[in-house]
Model the fold of this input.
Amino acid sequence: MLGEERRAEHEGALTEPPSSRLVSPDIRDEFGLETIDMSMGPQHPAMHGLLRLILELDGETVVRCDPVMGYLHRCQEKIAENRMYPAVIPLTDRLDYFANMHNEHGYCLAVEDLLDVEIPPRAEYIRVLMCELMRLASHIPSIGFLMLELGAFTPILYAFRERERIQSIFEAVTGARMMFHYIRIGGVKADLPPDIPQKIWDYIESLEAHFQRDFVDLIQGNEIFISRTRNVGKMTQEQAVEMGVTGPALRCTGVDFDIRLDYPYSVYPELQFEVITDTAGDVEASYRVRIAECLQSISIIKQCLEQMPEGEVMGDTGRRIRPDEGEGFGRVESPRGEYAVHVVSDGSDTPYRVHYRDPSFCNMQLLQEIVPGHYLPDIMPIMGLVDPVSGGWDK
Amino acid sequence: MPQVGQGILKGMGVTLQHLFGQKITRQYPEYKRELPERSRGMLTVDMDRCIACLQCMRICPDHCISIESTKRDADGSGKPKPFAVGFVIDDSRCMYCSLCVEVCPVNCIYHTEEFEAQAYDRLELARQFGELPVDPTVDPKPTVKKKKKPTGKKAPRTVEQPVSEKDDAA
Done:
């Protein structure tokens, strides 16, 4: 039987049930109760991307949850080894397709670490501006997805309305709505078009004006929302730190870890912002953290527009990028957590090795830890807490 | 204690406000929005300007450009120059990264505003530009070889001289 082997593997999980909802294995054996193996996904309408969860169910309670990935694997790291350094950037766009700018930024930081190139201050500001817009374009839909998984269809419409507007800004700046290829090694591709700073400012003002109404008044305080999310996916700080979780999923437990402040990069030291934390560590707390982070991003975007200096947008990298032998490392705070890139150079014009540390992949192991003991319908809100993107975990 | 149902009513109020707001959706095939200047659509080539330097073919990460070039005295100056006889852009491979546009020294390859490509056959998406058609199924850069790392010193060659049997016998 399929379950027998795996049950032996997860004997620990069965003898120490994380929740009192689980029937004790002794009672289960005495009465001859059986658990049911169920496969959720990869083609599940509510599932985040192409993820398969192998579930062991005791009635409606989940005993065991094993994520199975690999349905969107594209050998990104291996392909990068056969391409020249600048030609890897369009590939990084395809990793976490809700945080394309952060992927490009992380890779460029790693290669710039190898090259030791100076980046013009205007380019740094444009990078941060674009990354914070991207964070808005990722956090707002994640809230929408969370609500969609709870059965509310309205918030996703409002969330995608905002995302489409931000994408239009991106299209005017970079030329594409999703696969930007904008942040380059040594700077950015081109300066902002002359009318764009005003457009971004107007958009941010309008978003600020109706953010409270469309995403807070609509959701927060709703009885169904509270009953479905409060104390669901509850985890402690220790659990989250042990699992290597980063991003909003970690900050909602109360750990104030943020790469932008703890390992500052680009112009973040010159900007004023707070790290948002919450103490509850459940799905509702992660929603509150995301909402507050959106407001922080709005403030950062305004500061960037105000402080942006004039000047060049591309540093001097030479005609051909060929770093010396060595290793480069770059880490950024993507909307889902810490996104880090490790590039090893052997002195040729193609990287010897590129490794991506993607937050979607690393946060995924949280599922095995926190899902057992919950009811089957609680899995989807927990996916909203972890918020993985399939392009990110499969690479 | 707040009354149960208040939160839901508040949310319904928000949706009610939106009911009387302006519509934000557009009917796509009938309505087409204006694309921004930098928008990256399908590629096209001005063959009159192409100097067959093959730089776009070399930089393309997806090997979607294939060029067949010869030397030809096109402008009648008596000096044969590289000339692109065949030029194919395979749209089924292109990822619109714009690297070829940036690298072109004469700006002969550029993005158009066209973005709706559809075909029943994959090969129909390969668009020919030159006089002669180029086979798009043949990879223009079939072997990706890693260049030997350039070291400062040249390693001494230690190739042993082959000793032939004849010498041995002698």
